């Protein structure tokens, strides 16, 4: 697949370069899009979520033909699986993973489908899929409001298709997809709070109070479970006592940093949706030339400076004030992209033994303390953006003054 690195095609030329998929490819993509919309409202059913997860894994492997590429998508899914234990109202640990996959596969497949079938002649078929998914989901769950979750992959797919057709650069497209996902999820949250009668006064305060009470309830459940198991383990000589923890303080802290975590998860999801869409273009041979701006990923110097400033404020703040909480949330939002650049800079250069030692040490830190490891990788990525990428290398002949004799 040839990449266009300098002269980028106009929108009309880019649309002409896109080849229509075969009938089999179109049916496969449309079926996955429909199934993703349908599954999202019923991901709390463990068997359905597990079967859908296996289906997505098979599809991604057949698309990528590489276990290494599949592991990249498995990483955020595994992180969500681990986080499901402390998320309120989550009964099955596979629920969050399946929900992530519905947005990932549904958004990318829907974006691919809408890109090739956006003509008015094909609108009836396109517009038939979401209402059908909504009707079936409403019939299965018996809740019309819950059935509206089928619209979330559709919203992501529409924005993804628009970004692809307009040749929007990858960082901007990722931000637009993440913003759309965050907005739709926030609306879904507000509708849920209104439906249960918990929406009162300021919506942000109401969502925070509901989240705080849910986190505290989950903490009490975990403590009660440990207290029930403690006598049994004491007979075996195992001390299962929990340390003294101020659950209220922990819940308050989690609520304060929730906006940053929420937006960071949306950004990571947008990144993988766009990546999977581009890989579908390659696997289905939808174009002979792949514009460089669709695959090039970077972070602006302003974003790197913002992370460095906010990260340092959050690290050295003696207490969590309003300003330090805002800085911490901004650092969390900007960290994933910079951490990716930091990891890439270590694992692709390989210029010295020091780079190898740093890479091994960073991996060890990530496994020992994931948050600290990711923050170190993000600072490394910020350093890469601010200094290395914009300082000419003396060994690069392109940086020499060509006017000198």
What does this protein structure show overall?
- This protein has 405 residues and is mainly α.
- It is 73% helix and 1% strand.
- It has helices at residues 11-17, 23-39, 46-64, 67-83, 94-116, 123-141, 144-147, 151-165, 170-195, 203-235, 247-283, 301-316, 322-349, 353-368, 370-388; strands at 2-4, 289-291.
- Strands 1-2 form a two-stranded parallel ribbon.
- The protein is globular, with a radius of gyration of 23 Å.
- Mean pLDDT is 79; it is low at 1-7 and 390-405.
What percent of residues adopt helix (DSSP H or I)? over 70%
**What general form does the structure show?**
globular
Query: Which regions are unreliable across 5 or more consecutive residues at pLDDT < 50?
Result: 1-7, 390-405
Work out the radius of gyration: 23 Å
- The count of helical stretches stands at 15
Strand content: under 5%
């Amino acid at each position: 697949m040839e990449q266009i690195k300098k002269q980028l095609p106009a929108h009309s030329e880019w649309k002409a370069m896109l080849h229509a998929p075969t009938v089999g490819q179109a049916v496969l993509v449309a079926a996955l899009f429909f199934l993703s919309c349908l599954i999202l409202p019923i991901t709390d059913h463990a068997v359905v979520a597990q079967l859908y997860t296996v289906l997505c894994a098979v599809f991604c492997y057949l698309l990528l033909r590489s276990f290494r590429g599949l592991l990249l998508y498995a990483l955020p899914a595994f992180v969500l699986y681990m986080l499901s234990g402390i998320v309120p109202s989550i009964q099955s640990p596979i629920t969050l993973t399946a929900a992530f996959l519905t947005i990932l596969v549904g958004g990318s497949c829907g974006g691919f489908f809408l890109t090739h079938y956006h003509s008015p002649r094909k609108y009836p078929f396109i517009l038939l899929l979401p209402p059908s998914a909504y009707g079936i989901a409403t019939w299965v769950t018996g809740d019309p409001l819950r059935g509206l979750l089928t619209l979330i992959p559709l919203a992501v797919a529409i924005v993804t298709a628009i970004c692809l057709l307009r040749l929007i650069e990858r960082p901007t497209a990722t931000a637009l997809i993440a913003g759309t996902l965050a907005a739709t999820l926030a609306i879904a949250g507000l509708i849920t709070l209104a439906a249960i009668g918990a929406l009162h006064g300021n919506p942000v305060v109401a969502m925070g109070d509901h989240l705080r009470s849910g986190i505290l309830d989950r903490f009490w459940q975990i403590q009660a479970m440990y207290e029930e198991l403690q006598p049994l383990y004491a007979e075996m000589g195992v001390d299962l006592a929990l340390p003294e923890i101020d659950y209220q303080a922990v819940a308050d802290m989690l609520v304060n940093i929730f906006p940053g975590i929420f937006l960071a998860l949306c950004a990571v999801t947008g990144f993988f949706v766009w990546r999977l869409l581009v890989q579908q273009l390659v696997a289905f041979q939808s174009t002979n030339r792949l514009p460089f701006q669709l695959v090039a990923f970077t972070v602006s110097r302003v974003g790197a400076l913002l992370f460095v400033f906010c990260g340092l404020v959050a690290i050295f703040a003696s207490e969590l004030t309003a300003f330090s909480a805002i800085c911490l949330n901004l650092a969390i939002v900007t960290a994933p992209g910079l951490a990716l650049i930091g990891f890439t800079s270590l694992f692709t250069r390989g210029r010295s033994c020091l780079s190898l030692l740093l890479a091994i040490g960073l991996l060890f830190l990530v496994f020992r303390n994931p948050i600290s490891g990711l923050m170190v990788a993000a600072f490394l990525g910020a350093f890469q953006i601010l200094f290395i990428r914009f300082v000419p290398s003396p060994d690069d002949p392109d940086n020499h003054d060509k006017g000198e004799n």
